[in-house]
Amino acid sequence: MPPKAQFIREDGLYHSFCGLVSVGWLYQKIKDSFFLILGTHTCAHLLQNTLGVMIFARPRFAVSLLEEGDLSAAQPDIAEQIEEIKREHKPSVIFLLSSCTPEVMKVEFEGLAHSVSTPETPVLFVPASGLDFTFSQSEDSVLQALLPFCPEAPPEDKRVVFLGSVNDAIADDFMLEAQKLGIPVAGFLPSNHFHELPPIGPGTVIAPLQPFLPKVANLLVNERGATVLSSLFPFGPDGCRAFWEDLAAHFDLKVDLAEREAKAWERISEHTALLKDKKVFFAADTLLELPLARFARAAGANVLECSTPYINRRFHARELERLEGVRLVEQANFERQLRSMADEQPDLVISNIITANPLIGHGVVAKWGTEFIFSPIHGWAGVNMLVGLFTRAMRRRAKLDAFEL
Ligand code: SF4
User: Which burial class, exposed, middle or buried, applies to 154 when counting CB atoms under 10 A from its CB (0-12, 13-18, 19+)?
Assistant: First the structure.
């Protein structure tokens, strides 16, 4: 049984940015994929504005727009669009993503995807609408859709599969580190190409790189008999050390990375000196909050509050242990958060895209949580970038204050 972590559940907004946004990194990660969203002008605007894509960039995602006339149709017809996507982009796999309006209209997505799917180019349904999914969670839905295409590995195939998308440079860093420690690697889920999905079976150790993938991790246990590593997520020197030591132990390797961790802290000491005893308040929505707060605390910050959309007691167990004593809140109420901020006067607020600018306008030093999602902050190679994201807003504010003087 996972430990009974103490956290408060409030009644606040938890989907400030919808699940469609994960298309922004997934279409780049899975290089022979195409993402088709069945949505409205709102969805198209969201993607256009948040991902800043220009028409001539020919991105491998699109929105199939529902117009008023479609509202009366029994089931939208996307066959022509699928043919056009195949002709123009030649993808190996097409993901069909749901959105709010067709979900309310009760479009039967599973059947719709099935009707246009072929063995050569599977069309996979991905639940991702902003009604049910926040920001990073639809990566979990995409990986669940890919799971049936991962080859079955025999029980004697004992290797690690890294779970969660990271950019190529960070993936290379994880490969090299595993090689150095003698840990055999079967691959990454997701892989760079659809036909390179890793084999997964009872001997596979799943090492989660992202904290927002509990459902697919659970499926890997139930459907393939794999083992999921329970450790810290590999963010910051403390997270990386625990992650690699715990992973090595699954392969009967005794690894002590105390020195490596100390050196990594030493390298970022200029930043941690700035963070020391600073009051940090997490009000964000990316689902990265638990490991980020744990890292900030280890770096010397005083974490006043760590709010996050969802907490999974089992998947986040090790992070929760390290956050004992911090006010942990699920689905935080923003009104209450504003009152807490007024009382506690944080030095830095990690906030979502909706609230960061108004907070800055009121004199609060605030940072968009979104930037952490789009930055290479994983593993040993990501330590400098990670701590830099925390201190950049504080340095900028200090410079502005000096300018005003
Ligand atoms: Fe908005 Fe829903 Fe479309 Fe997301 S799926 S952009 S929340 S309408």
Answer: exposed
